[in-house]
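Dear support,

I submitted the protein below through the web form. The confirmation email said the job was done, but the results page showed an empty box. After a refresh the structure appeared. I'm attaching both so you can tell me whether what I see now is the final result or a partial one.
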Amino acid sequence: MRQNPRNTSRKLFASLAVLAIVFVIAAIAQFTGALRKAQPASAASSPQSTATQPRAVFGELPQAPPPQPQPVEKTEAGEETARSRSEATITARGEIDSLLDRWRNTFLRGDVNGQTILYAPKMELFYRRNSVSRETVRREKSRMMELYPKVHRYDISDVKVESHRGDEAVVSFRKDWDMNGDRRFSGAERQRLKLKRINGDWKIIREEELKIYWVRRS
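What the results page shows now:
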């Protein structure tokens, strides 16, 4: 059977057209892939990209600046504690001064009971005697007041709080006196008292002479 030359030409032309289209699609795909590969490289090499990325250091990460020290501020609780301690010290000093006033005034009046109650039931030291009772102090005070019933002067001055820790305190002062009975007795000395808070009240638990400046009996 003999083929028609015109039909053969049409088939050949259609095959060439399809082949041309395939080549064009392949060329477009290849060009697109090459363009995508080229874009990251160009972006990485651009100055703007380099400037925005931190420079890599081997084994290290970019470090944040060290924190700046903050000024230490006194808290309200600390201020309240300091204020409470200061107020307690002022209150204690006032109570100690009040005891010294009573100690002086009761002797001036010859009030042996008022004088004795300012001492603790048990004394550490009473002049040169250790561990004496309040009753012993009473007898000594009573004997002194009977020997010299007229007290012209009994003053304390230059009071110094040598120590104050909680419920204990030590004070020293100058004592000047002038009294007489059958004989006159006067003088001046440096004296020390140790105090202790017992049942809420300050009591004398130690009384001693530190230095005698002068004494006269006539």
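Response: this is the final, complete result; the empty box was a page-load delay. The chain has a mean pLDDT of 80.
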